[in-house]
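Table S2 (continued). Query chain:
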Amino acid sequence: MRVGTVRESKTHEYRVGLTPESVREFSAHGHEIRVESGAGSGIGASDSDYEAAGATIRPRAADIFSECELIVKVKEPQAEERALLHEGQVLFTYLHLAPDPEQTADLVKSGVTAIAYETVTGPGRTLPLLKPMSQVAGRMAVQAGASALQKEHGGRGILLGGVPGVMPGKVAVIGGGVVGFNAAQVAVGMGSDVTVLDRDPEVLERLGIHFESRAKTRFSSRANLADSVAEADLVVGAVLVPGAAAPRLVTRDMLATMKPGAVLVDVAIDQGGCFETSHATTHDDPTFVLDGIVHYCVANMPGAVSRTSTYALNNVTLPHALNIADMGWKAALRSNPHLADGLNVHAGHVIYEAVASELGYPWTPVADILD
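Corresponding output:
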């Protein structure tokens, strides 16, 4: 199979879909690999590194899209990339379709087969292709929030860890999943006063056992959430509903109860955000201030630590991408129900139920496609 990867075109996105080591694996399986020139520059991989691994370098993204049967990316295709997709082609990348009607419409129109990293499942309905980026984003969330709390960035002038004789900053983490757990780890490590909110008693128990007295847990009722947000210097939104738009848990009215210069970091922004006042920002302009509250809503946070993120992502995506290339997409999905959960769009049909429901498309079950 002809497999290609392109230089990511999203603003300040430095990750790449395939590392030279991943290219070598595809080559060993007998596949032809096309890589856009400069695609690996953000991770320190040169065109010659890719050529040594067996890839053919092409000068433009358009060449990759026209020549390749399988496109492996990191971020959702931008409008100019979506115009290059065509029927019969397989796209394997993060999509986050539920809050993105324009992208969904373009994918449906293109006839492409689009498999989303974020909805591929694992045993126990885990999300193994989302997990490494959630780990990165969770850890970065506190780092970004700590910076935003500095006075010159519009924040309260708070050092999260405090100093002897001065109380530490208060961090509220909404959601105790992978993002929330990693955010809490970093916040605790910095010496912050940390509270994690979740609605699942088992998650709260697991967090309580892990952190012991170093972090508090709290059931995420409306009253407890409002109270925790009002008290916090930094709020990390770490809520996920797989494949669907994130619930807007923190309302604009709540901002009036917060301390001026407090910070909201919305890690759920890829799925529309879990704060009512969120809108996506970029690494070159990461924050905005609304009602006196600093918002950090960068939609591709792990792109800032591109080498770490790319290698962590390739570790989990490569086996699936190889299976798609080796077997063909339909046989690969038939043989692996977890990978089949990743199918979001195929030949003009919306396959993922949450996306169809959110955006008003007829839903076509994946079983109907694979029969």
